[in-house]
Design brief:
The strands form 2 sheets. This protein has a 4-stranded parallel β-sheet with strand order 6-2-1-7, covered by helices on one side. Strands 3-5-4 form a 3-stranded antiparallel β-sheet, with no helix packed on it. It starts with a strand and ends in a 25-residue tail after the last helix. The chain has 5 helices and 7 strands. Helix 1 packs parallel to helix 4. 13% of the residues are buried. Among the domains are: 88 residues, Rossmann fold; 29 residues, no CATH class. The chain is α/β, with parallel strands linked by helices and 174 residues long. It is globular and about 55 Å long.
Protein backbone atom coordinates (compact mmCIF):
# COMPACT_ATOMS: atom_id res chain seq x y z
CA UNK A 1 0.00 0.00 0.00
CA UNK A 2 1.39 3.39 -1.05
CA UNK A 3 1.49 5.76 1.90
CA UNK A 4 1.05 9.53 1.84
CA UNK A 5 3.30 12.17 3.41
CA UNK A 6 1.51 15.11 5.04
CA UNK A 7 3.46 18.37 5.15
CA UNK A 8 2.31 20.71 7.91
CA UNK A 9 1.00 19.88 11.38
CA UNK A 10 -1.56 22.66 11.63
CA UNK A 11 -5.32 22.20 11.53
CA UNK A 12 -5.52 20.99 7.91
CA UNK A 13 -2.46 18.74 8.07
CA UNK A 14 -3.48 16.99 11.28
CA UNK A 15 -7.04 16.57 10.03
CA UNK A 16 -5.76 14.97 6.80
CA UNK A 17 -3.35 12.68 8.68
CA UNK A 18 -5.97 11.68 11.26
CA UNK A 19 -8.49 10.88 8.52
CA UNK A 20 -5.91 8.86 6.57
CA UNK A 21 -4.90 6.89 9.68
CA UNK A 22 -2.99 3.84 8.38
CA UNK A 23 -2.40 5.38 4.92
CA UNK A 24 -0.28 8.22 6.34
CA UNK A 25 3.49 7.71 6.13
CA UNK A 26 4.33 10.64 8.38
CA UNK A 27 3.61 14.27 9.19
CA UNK A 28 6.40 16.77 8.62
CA UNK A 29 6.32 20.11 10.48
CA UNK A 30 8.95 22.86 10.20
CA UNK A 31 8.16 24.26 13.66
CA UNK A 32 9.71 22.59 16.71
CA UNK A 33 6.32 21.55 18.12
CA UNK A 34 2.62 21.64 17.30
CA UNK A 35 1.58 25.05 16.01
CA UNK A 36 -0.94 26.91 18.12
CA UNK A 37 -2.40 28.99 15.32
CA UNK A 38 -6.12 28.53 15.90
CA UNK A 39 -7.31 30.59 18.83
CA UNK A 40 -10.76 31.36 17.46
CA UNK A 41 -13.74 29.20 18.38
CA UNK A 42 -13.84 26.42 15.80
CA UNK A 43 -17.44 25.90 14.77
CA UNK A 44 -18.82 23.63 12.11
CA UNK A 45 -22.22 23.41 10.42
CA UNK A 46 -22.38 19.63 10.86
CA UNK A 47 -20.91 16.95 13.09
CA UNK A 48 -19.05 15.24 10.22
CA UNK A 49 -15.57 16.30 11.47
CA UNK A 50 -16.36 15.17 15.02
CA UNK A 51 -17.87 11.92 13.75
CA UNK A 52 -14.93 11.18 11.45
CA UNK A 53 -12.37 11.81 14.18
CA UNK A 54 -14.49 10.28 16.96
CA UNK A 55 -13.83 13.39 19.04
CA UNK A 56 -16.86 14.87 20.81
CA UNK A 57 -17.84 18.41 19.76
CA UNK A 58 -20.36 20.48 21.69
CA UNK A 59 -23.63 21.01 19.82
CA UNK A 60 -25.02 24.51 20.27
CA UNK A 61 -27.82 26.52 18.73
CA UNK A 62 -26.75 29.80 17.17
CA UNK A 63 -28.38 32.74 15.46
CA UNK A 64 -26.22 34.51 12.93
CA UNK A 65 -26.92 38.20 12.57
CA UNK A 66 -25.33 41.47 11.58
CA UNK A 67 -25.91 45.06 12.45
CA UNK A 68 -27.32 46.73 9.36
CA UNK A 69 -25.29 49.92 9.21
CA UNK A 70 -25.71 50.98 5.61
CA UNK A 71 -25.13 48.44 2.85
CA UNK A 72 -25.09 44.73 3.79
CA UNK A 73 -23.34 43.69 0.57
CA UNK A 74 -20.59 46.30 0.96
CA UNK A 75 -20.15 45.30 4.61
CA UNK A 76 -19.89 41.60 3.67
CA UNK A 77 -17.30 42.45 1.03
CA UNK A 78 -15.33 44.57 3.51
CA UNK A 79 -15.39 41.71 6.02
CA UNK A 80 -14.19 39.33 3.32
CA UNK A 81 -11.33 41.67 2.41
CA UNK A 82 -10.34 41.92 6.08
CA UNK A 83 -10.36 38.16 6.68
CA UNK A 84 -8.90 36.72 3.50
CA UNK A 85 -7.59 39.60 1.42
CA UNK A 86 -10.17 39.34 -1.36
CA UNK A 87 -13.64 40.72 -1.86
CA UNK A 88 -15.92 37.69 -2.16
CA UNK A 89 -19.49 36.99 -1.12
CA UNK A 90 -19.78 35.72 2.45
CA UNK A 91 -22.33 33.54 4.22
CA UNK A 92 -23.26 36.47 6.46
CA UNK A 93 -25.51 37.64 3.61
CA UNK A 94 -27.78 34.65 4.21
CA UNK A 95 -28.44 35.31 7.87
CA UNK A 96 -31.65 34.02 9.32
CA UNK A 97 -33.43 34.76 12.59
CA UNK A 98 -33.94 31.00 13.03
CA UNK A 99 -31.58 29.16 15.40
CA UNK A 100 -29.23 26.76 13.63
CA UNK A 101 -27.07 23.92 14.90
CA UNK A 102 -23.33 24.45 15.17
CA UNK A 103 -20.71 22.05 16.48
CA UNK A 104 -17.93 23.54 18.61
CA UNK A 105 -14.57 21.76 18.61
CA UNK A 106 -12.69 21.32 21.89
CA UNK A 107 -9.96 23.91 22.52
CA UNK A 108 -7.29 21.18 22.38
CA UNK A 109 -8.46 19.77 19.04
CA UNK A 110 -4.97 19.99 17.50
CA UNK A 111 -3.48 17.89 20.29
CA UNK A 112 -6.32 15.37 20.15
CA UNK A 113 -5.87 14.96 16.38
CA UNK A 114 -2.12 14.50 16.84
CA UNK A 115 -2.85 11.64 19.25
CA UNK A 116 -4.98 9.91 16.59
CA UNK A 117 -2.20 9.73 14.02
CA UNK A 118 -0.52 6.35 13.70
CA UNK A 119 2.47 7.74 11.78
CA UNK A 120 5.26 9.78 13.36
CA UNK A 121 5.18 13.57 13.45
CA UNK A 122 8.64 14.90 12.62
CA UNK A 123 9.21 18.40 14.00
CA UNK A 124 11.79 21.06 13.22
CA UNK A 125 12.58 20.18 9.63
CA UNK A 126 11.64 21.44 6.23
CA UNK A 127 10.13 18.80 3.98
CA UNK A 128 12.50 17.79 1.15
CA UNK A 129 10.01 18.13 -1.72
CA UNK A 130 12.62 17.47 -4.39
CA UNK A 131 13.71 14.14 -2.85
CA UNK A 132 10.27 12.53 -3.12
CA UNK A 133 9.21 12.89 -6.74
CA UNK A 134 6.33 10.55 -7.45
CA UNK A 135 5.37 9.97 -3.81
CA UNK A 136 1.88 11.22 -2.85
CA UNK A 137 2.11 14.36 -0.74
CA UNK A 138 -0.56 16.46 0.94
CA UNK A 139 0.94 19.89 1.55
CA UNK A 140 -0.81 22.26 3.92
CA UNK A 141 2.01 24.77 4.22
CA UNK A 142 1.19 28.40 3.38
CA UNK A 143 0.99 29.03 -0.36
CA UNK A 144 3.69 31.76 -0.37
CA UNK A 145 6.10 29.36 1.38
CA UNK A 146 5.38 26.55 -1.08
CA UNK A 147 5.72 28.89 -4.06
CA UNK A 148 9.08 30.10 -2.75
CA UNK A 149 10.35 26.54 -2.14
CA UNK A 150 9.35 25.50 -5.65
CA UNK A 151 10.79 28.65 -7.21
CA UNK A 152 7.46 29.57 -8.77
CA UNK A 153 8.37 32.37 -11.17
CA UNK A 154 5.03 34.19 -10.97
CA UNK A 155 5.07 34.46 -7.17
CA UNK A 156 3.94 37.88 -5.94
CA UNK A 157 3.97 38.11 -2.15
CA UNK A 158 1.68 41.15 -2.31
CA UNK A 159 -1.19 38.86 -3.33
CA UNK A 160 -0.82 36.77 -0.15
CA UNK A 161 -0.93 39.20 2.74
CA UNK A 162 -2.05 38.02 6.14
CA UNK A 163 -4.72 39.94 7.98
CA UNK A 164 -4.49 40.86 11.62
CA UNK A 165 -7.48 40.07 13.77
CA UNK A 166 -8.68 40.10 17.34
CA UNK A 167 -10.49 37.38 19.25
CA UNK A 168 -13.06 38.65 21.72
CA UNK A 169 -14.44 36.29 24.36
CA UNK A 170 -17.78 37.35 25.82
CA UNK A 171 -20.05 35.70 28.39
CA UNK A 172 -23.71 36.58 28.10
CA UNK A 173 -25.79 36.45 31.24
CA UNK A 174 -29.53 35.92 31.36
Amino acid sequence: MLKIDVVGAGMAGLLAAAMLRKKCNGVFESQKDLPNNHSAVLRFRSSVVADTLNIPFKKVMAIKSTEAWCNPIAEAMAYSRKTNGTATMRSVLSVSPDPQSRFIAPSDLLHQMAELIDAPIEFGQDYPFWAYRGRPIISTIPMPTLMSILGYEFFDSAEFNSRAGTNVIVSLLD
